[in-house]
Amino acid sequence: MSRPLGLVPHLFVRDVDAAVSFYAKAFGAVELFRTVLPDGTVLFVELAVGDARLLVSQEIAALDALAPSTIGGTPMLLTLETDDPDDLARRAVFAGATVEAPVTEMFFGERYGRVVDPDGHRWALTTKREQYTPEDIDARKPHDV
Amino acid sequence: MANGNPLTPAAFQVLLALATGPGGRAHGYGIMGFVAEVTGGAVQLGPGTLYRTLTRLAADGLAEELPGEDSRRRYYRITPAGRAVAAREAALLGRLVAAAGDAGLLARPESA
User: Fold this and answer.
1) Is this complex's ipTM strictly greater than 0.85?
2) Of A145 and B22, which is predicted with more confidence?
3) What is the pLDDT of residues A97-129, one digit of tens each?
4) How many domains does chain A have?
5) What percent of chain B has pLDDT over 90?
6) B39 lies in which domain range?
7) B109 falls within a domain
8) Is residue A67, in this structure, part of any structural domain at all?
9) Would you call B52 and A32 a contact, using CB atoms and an 8 Å cutoff?
10) Across the strands, what pairs with A33?
11) Cβ separation B52–A28 shorter than 8 A
12) Interface test with B, best of A5, A31, A32, A54 (most B CBs within 10 A)
């Protein structure tokens, strides 16, 4: 039986080197390798972010693979789990991100906040506490959500 | 980084291969061979996985590439930090394997 073995976000950005530098400073990303075309175009860079992989490519207008800053938004939220979201958010802002929602304690039992990176990709920074069951979370849900 | 977090299976297998090698060092092909042999072929680290894992271990200070005389055969060495992390992971796995034995999940060796 064929079954997926992984899920890897592939982000398109305006400037690969600036993006890789941001992810390194903000999230401790490590560049594993890059594939460069003969004309010097960076096809993609593979990063390790924690135990996850992240692919980053230069936007390609001809293929309609565009950065959020070019499109003017993104429908995607990348959720990064960490022990200390406050620290990660501080690092992200220092590296050039803007705060969309400050890190705060949430009813679902996580400390959670959101930042937007310089290319417009949105990141949720959260703990992975899993201290509540789905029933607990339902019971704690605010009425106006 | 690698502080306190469990290692990925591939990272532990590579550190184990390095720790087994003479002087805590091994080359890429040797690492792949060791992992295949010790797992009875159940785990085959491909060159791409091996490269990514070694790069990541080096970035985390758990392994280091040795300056090579032969550029086609790159040698890596486990660092003291890598040894400590691998030992911690081995102790954790040891406890789980002991519990698996208590649960009757380990195949008994054939009695002679």
Assistant:
1) no
2) B22
3) 999 999 999 988 899 999 999 999 999 999 988
4) 1
5) 80
6) 9-102
7) no
8) no
9) yes
10) A46
11) no
12) A32
